Known about the structure:
52% of the residues lie in helices and 14% in strands. By secondary structure, it is an alpha/beta fold. The protein has one domain (33-276): TIM Barrel, CATH 3.20.20. It has an eight-stranded parallel β-barrel, surrounded by seven helices. The longest helix has 21 residues, at 66-86.
Amino acid sequence: xxxxxxxxxxxxxxxxxxxxxxxxxxxxxxxxxxxxxxxxxxxxxxxxxxxxxxxxxxxxxxxxxxxxxxxxxxxxxxxxxxxxxxxxxxxxxxxxxxxxxxxxxxxxxxxxxxxxxxxxxxxxxxxxxxxxxxxxxxxxxxxxxxxxxxxxxxxxxxxxxxxxxxxxxxxxxxxxxxxxxxxxxxxxxxxxxxxxxxxxxxxxxxxxxxxxxxxxxxxxxxxxxxxxxxxxxxxxxxxxxxxxxxxxxxxxxxxxxxxxxxxxxxxxxxxxxxxxxxxxxxxxxxxxxxxxxxxxxxxxxx
Length: 302
C-alpha cells in the first residue's frame, strides 16, 4: 500500500481528481494548514501561542519553467516579510525543485541565494528540504555553495538513505545545521535501507553524530523510540535542552508536541500550505496506516 500511494503521489491525473473532490480537500486540512499564506500564518500564531516554533513551507515541487521558479522565489520573499510583520517565531523550509533545480542548477542556486539574503536581513533562516535520492547530491552541492557565503541556510538528512552518515559528517565539517528525519520517498534497496529497524538504527547513529557537534540541529520525528533515544543520549552527554530542537509535522502528534515543550525542549512544527498539496498529502497517508484509515473513513463518509 505504501508503494502504491507513493507512486500515485506523482500522478497528475490522480492529483486532479483528488484535489477537485470536496471531501478530500477538507481532509487535507489535517496535514496542510490551508491553500493561502494567511491561513498558514494563522496556524503559526496558534502554534506560537502554545510555545511551539514553526517552519513555513509553500508546497510545490518540480516546476516546469523559469517563470514558475522565479514566482516561487517571490512567494518566499513575501513569507519572510509577513513573518517579520506578524513577529512570529518562524523560519522557512523549501524544496530546490520548486526553484528550478531540474531546469538550471545555476538559476536555482541564484534564486536560493536571494531568498537566503532576504532571510538574513531579518535575522532569519532557510531550511532546504531533501527530496528523492535522485536529488540528494545536487541538493547538497547547492547548499554547500550557498553555505560558503552565509550561515543562514541548513539542510535535511534522511536516515533511510545508506549514504546519510557520510553526508552528515561532511556537512558537519562545514558547520551546517541539519534537520534529521527518516525519509518519505520510495527508494530502491541499493540506495535506502528497506527494513525499519535499520532506518531506526541509522537515525540514532546520525543523531549521536549531530548533537555533540555544538551546532543547533533539528531532530525531526514522531517516533517515541527515537525521541526516547535522543533524550537518553543528551542526558548522558550533558547536552542542554536548548542546544537543539525536536521537530514534528503539522497535525501529527500534537499531544506529544506540547508534552515535549512542557518537558523543557524546543519544539518546531513544520507547517505546509499551498494549492499544490497533493504529493505532500499522499506521502503523509503512506507513512502510517492510521493516516490511511483516517482518509478512507472520512472519504466514504463524505
